[in-house]
Amino acid sequence: MFDPKKLLDDLLGSQIPGTSGTVRDKAGQAVQMAKDNPLAAGALAAVLLGTGAGREVTGAAVKLGGLAAIGGLAYKAYQNYKAGKAPEQAPAAGEPELLPPPKDTAFHPSQAPQGEDEFTLTLVRAMISAAKADGHIDDEERQKIAGKLSLAGIGAGAEKFLMSELEAPLDLDTLVAGAETDAQKLELYTASRLTIDPDTRAERGYLDLLAGRLGLPDALVDHVEATVSAAKVPVAKAGTSPNPRW
User: Fold this and answer.
1) Separation between Cα atoms, residue 229 and residue 220, nearest integer Å
2) Any idea what DSSP says for residue 107?
3) Nearest-CA neighbor of 179 among 204, 203, 133, 210?
4) Alpha carbon distance 240, 140 (integer Å)
5) CB of 11 closer than 8 Å to CB of 43
6) How many Cβ atoms from other residues are within 10 Å of residue 95's Cβ?
7) The pLDDT of residue 229
8) Per-residue pLDDT tens digits for 189-232
């Protein structure tokens, strides 16, 4: 059995174990990402679909690890929402602070009623579903994806799980049911939003549908959008198209 939390970090990270380059470098893209960045938004899409959002999460988020950072972002959005603050799209001066969610809140991984590992797998499934939102994937691309996953050295168990999820049809009922608390519903949406920047109608439509199925108020979704945007900075795309494929 593979370690779900390590898989989440590996998928969101940019460095391919055992190589000196990143997933995007190996795919012929000119995006340089910090090798110790475990929460590079768009890296999951780069691994799975050969595309990327063109932005990356920076600051304290990259040091927390995927599970804690997703929880921290969701918690921050929720706190701002409950305080009645207006969503701020632009980060404050300097590096935006992000802390892991407090241990005594439902956002902390240890509070997951179904267990950390099971909920981590739900987050991975949510990210894969978001990465597939534009619908551009066929058998040839799946073969290329399998090759990249093999190169990444994530292990046979994790590789089999990812390919199975990648090939599975969208099942929002099961995905939404995997979030058992209100906090987890918000984390699931946050993880999905981290994976993609909704630059297409299909991606925006998917996120809107997901938010609706999760029962998230529009104002709370706006705070997630603002929190994620504030945690991201543009990355250079020298010589690349907005949505490069393999």
Assistant:
1) 14
2) T
3) 210
4) 21
5) yes
6) 13
7) 83
8) 999 998 888 888 988 999 999 999 999 999 999 999 999 888 77
67 by Cβ neighbours in 10 Å (0-12 / 13-18 / 19+) ranks as: buried
pLDDT tens across 79-90, in order? 999 999 988 655
Q: Cα torsion at 129, 131, 132, 135 (round to 10°)?
A: 140
C-alpha span between 72 and 98 (Å, rounded): 7
**Distance between CA 24 and CA 237 in Å, rounded?**
11
Tell me the C-alpha distance between 125 and 245, whole Å. 21
**Cβ atoms of residues 20 and 229 within 8 Å:** no
Point out the residues of the chain with pLDDT beneath 50. 14-45, 49-55, 92-93, 236-246
Please provide the size of the chain in residues.
246
| Max CA distance (Å), the chain | 49
User: CA-to-CA distance for 175 and 101, rounded, in angstroms?
Assistant: 23
- Counting runs of H as helices and runs of E as strands, what totals does the chain give? 12, 2
* DSSP single-letter state for residue 110: G
The whole-angstrom separation of Cα 144 and Cα 150 is 10
Helices (H), 83-138: 116-131
CA angle 178, 156, 190 (to 5 degrees): 30
What pairing do the DSSP bridges indicate for beta strands 55-57 and 232-234?
Answer: antiparallel
> Global pTM?
0.77
| Number of Cβ within a 10 Å radius of residue 228 | 23
Beta bridge partners of 219: none
- CA torsion 159→8→124→86, rounded to 10°? -160
